[in-house]
User: Fold this.
Amino acid sequence: MTFRQNRGWVRAFAPATVANVACGFDVFGFALEQPGDVVAARTHAQPGIVIAEITGDGGKLTRDAEGNTASVALARLLRETLGERAPGIELRVDKGVPLESGLGSSAASAVAAVVAVDALLDLRAPRELLLRCATESERVVAGAAHADNVAPSLYGGFVLVRDAEPRVVDLPVPAGLACAVVRPHAAVSTRVARAILAQHVELHRAVTQWGNTAALVAALFRSDLALLASALHDAVVEPARSPLVPGLPAMQAAARKAGALGCCLAGSGPSVFALCATLGVARVSAEWMAAALTEASGLASDVYVSVVGARGARPLAEGE
Assistant:
């Protein structure tokens, strides 16, 4: 394979995501319009990957190429496409997705990095290869290579992720479906949130979860918002993780009062999302959820309102 030597910076954006989506632990995810990470890449005179700068992380992320999800994903991409002929690459990472927020922060960095370098070197790598490379980097943060954040960040839309390969199925999104996200100013480690989960599930809980998962898929295909609302319940994971999230019951009650279809943890938390029939309802839900959080816990928050299943990662034109 040949590649285009390009000494200028090429930038790519990868959006935040909501994973699990209530009942679909490690299998459902959808993209948000904002926030997102931007990674800039250019060729470097020295071999290997150098992370020149990270902004927006408060100094928390490592610039060690073996420990950062952006460089881990990129290293696999270069290894699988160019091998020993790969040029040195310099990266700049601008974190727009808050760390430990439950919104796929590590996935966004990994996806933006592989998309930027794919464009920089004109690799034209298959999307499935970019997915595998970015998914592998999740082991660095979460201890498991799961793609429920990576896939929607890369592909956009609302997706179902199957197996460890992984295989991705695009799901339809009912017209107008919107999302309110409230991120409390608190942090939840993905590793900790996974470690507290039980390794065995009682049969009655498993049956409830299977039914909700099937109902959610059917609701999306039928654009049946009443069925979707009934499916937005997590019988297995959220009960274990809810103690990690301050103000969760208050936010859920506020979302229901505002007219949301359902309200659940986003990923491992502490972010909470509410699915809504319209952007207008989503805006009201976000406002009321944030107010309920502050009243219940004293915490401030960041608020995002988005259509469900926004566009996925992409190279950025100059000036974007």
